[in-house]
Amino acid sequence: AxxxxxxxxxxxxxxxxxLFQPNVLATAELANWARQHSSYFVxxxxxxxxxxxxxxxxxxxxxxxxxxxxxxxxxxxxxxxxSGIKHAILRISGIFGKSGPPHLGINNAIDxxxxxxxxxxxGDGNIKRNYIYVKDLGSIIKYCLDNVIEGTHLVxxxxxxxxxxxxxxxxxxxxxxxxxxxxxxxxxHDQLIDHSPHL
Length: 199
Prior knowledge:
single chain; 199 residues; alpha/beta; 4-stranded parallel beta sheet; two-stranded parallel ribbon; 5 helices; 12 strands; elongated
């Protein structure tokens, strides 16, 4: 099997030419290798290809690749489908854990808390997310491999909680004497991912 988790994460406003080789061409090469070797393929895509402002992402969502990074992930999906290989495409919500991707604020809060720095909360923190813990994602990938799960599946955490609750929990676990620092900020929007019933 091939488990393809590598990508240039383009939240830094990477352009299509910059994303072409790491996100499109590399995916095509790996899918072609899997085709030649009759290998099963697991691909990490992004739930946000259904819209960055979409409050609830479901299995029947309409695609809305609002930036070049999300477009490159969609192209990767299409290449895998066109190759005809047996595959699972996982459209994953935000992934959190120690040293997790820094574009996700909760990962910065975790890493700062491990250094003794209290998390910072902007605004009321009442928007909800169901991010997934990196170890849980690893278990889902293993389940796909063990059971040769096929198709496109949304992957999100089992709990829908507010950003404020996340930051409070980080303090409870890593900085029990501290509370998040609260600063003024804009109100955001909920974004929940309907986790696939097949996983």
